[in-house]
Amino acid sequence: MRGDARFHAPVAAPRGFTDRVLIWWREVDKWLLGLVILLMALGTIAVAAASPAGGKQYGVEEFAFLKRHVAFQGMGLAMMIGISFASREDARRLGILLAVVMLFLLLLVPLIGAEKNGARRWLNVGMSLQPSEFLKPGFAILLAWMLSWRMRDASLPVLGYATLTMALVAALLMLQPNLGATILFGGVWFVLVLLSGVSLAKMGALVATGMGGLTATYFLYDNARHRIDSFLGGGTAYDQVYLAERTLTAGGWTGSGLWLGTRKMQLPEAHTDYIFSVIGEEFGLLACAVILLLYVAIITRALVRLVDEENLFALLASAGLATLIGGQAFINMAVNLQLFPSKGMTLPLVSYGGSSTLAVCLTFGLLLAITRRNPFLKRERPGLKDLLGRSAKASNSKVRT
What is the Cα–Cα distance from 26 to 21, expressed in whole angstroms? Predict the structure, then answer.
């Protein structure tokens, strides 16, 4: 080497695979990762219990769904961990790309989609793909990205962009029709718009518009009206919900034991929509409480991670992804408890599912990537409080002007 080495600019040493793994392990939320893996393990046990009922309904070998579920869980776990290695910027790009691609595929569903049980929600691409499932995490990240623009320029009409996106998604979902997913997407939109600092007057007007649209849905869509009418006054959909609630409570507090339940054999979609009821029958209400508390722990852990988050996009994206998981779990369990009409929505990481399992693992992978942080960096102020305070001030100043 010529010259004095002291005058040469330092060159960063390339990081090998081991270095990247060590950095990932230092920065990833280990508690959240552990809770998710525990939920996946319990889900595998639940599908093992429900698989004979699903096999009987669909005329396949009694453990066929369990074998497929294990394969999907393995693929999903690998996807989740792989995506969690991404930087926050790469996770944002992936989410936006996912939203654009799935919106395009959602446009194709009414035209060339496959119909099952009176709904057209799937595309046959070598396997059965449900675009709305993969749109969920992309939608949350796309909205978070849009709404985070207001921190750079409060004059940008980000609320209008977010609302138009929500309206487009709702229209495409109701063409299937898929009222349950529309409500879930609407819940994510509501949470993110609220956290972004929009004035209460605007929020009230938007919520009123949404309630008006939901009321119109009852009169314009036969599928939604029939499910609600059946739930309120009896009928096929009500029979399913009633049977699910009876199955849920049949095992008492401790359950009848693995593969000893009998009511599950008459329960439609026992391995997917109504797997929570199978857990109640075979493992008891205490096991159902454990599943519920596990979801609460996952959502709480994700939100606690955001308390001192200083980046508005990361705050909104993480909150949106957590809302997706918590909202879907709440709707599924409410249906099983006979509190909601049937929605055709799976219990995240517990129900059997191809698209559903992979999409939820993708959601958790993005959540783990976005919430990664260097533990040696110190934050001097509570980021959540500071961001919401600045957003509210910007909104109020805009209203005054």
Answer: 9
User: Is there a contact between 46 and 350 (Cβ–Cβ < 8 Å)?
Assistant: yes
Residue 250: φ, ψ to 5°: -65, -30
Distance CA 395, CA 200 (A): 10
Residue 373: count of CB within 10 angstroms of its CB: 18
At 171 the three-state DSSP class reads helix
- Output the DSSP codes for 312-371: HHHHHHHHHHHHHHHHHHHHHHHHHTTSS-------TTTS--SHHHHHHHHHHHHHHHHT
The pLDDT tens digits for 307-338 are 877 888 999 999 999 999 999 999 999 888 88
Residue 283 has pLDDT above 80, yes or no: yes
State the Cα–Cα distance between residues 138 and 136, nearest whole angstrom: 5
pLDDT given for residue 401 in this prediction? 44
What the block records as the tokens of 316 is 């909104």
With contact defined as beta carbons under 8 Å apart, do 352 and 52 qualify? Answer: no
Taking the CA atoms of the chain, what radius of gyration do you get in angstroms?
Answer: 23
H-helix or E-strand containing 239? helix 236-250
Distance CA 63, CA 190 (A): 40
Give dist(CA 50, CA 264) in Å, integer: 7
Residue (of 160, 107, 111) closest to 132 by Cα position:
107
Q: Determine contact, residues 141/95, Cβ cutoff 8 Å.
A: yes
- Residue-wise pLDDT tens digits, 93-132: 999 999 999 999 999 888 887 777 667 787 877 677 888 9
Round to whole Å and give the CA distance between 384 and 374.
Answer: 18
What are 289's two structure tokens? 């409480």
Residues 240-255: tens digit of each pLDDT: 777 888 888 888 898 8
User: What is the C-alpha separation between 365 and 84, in angstroms, rounded?
Assistant: 5
Whether the CA torsion 76, 80, 86, 90 is positive or negative: it is: positive
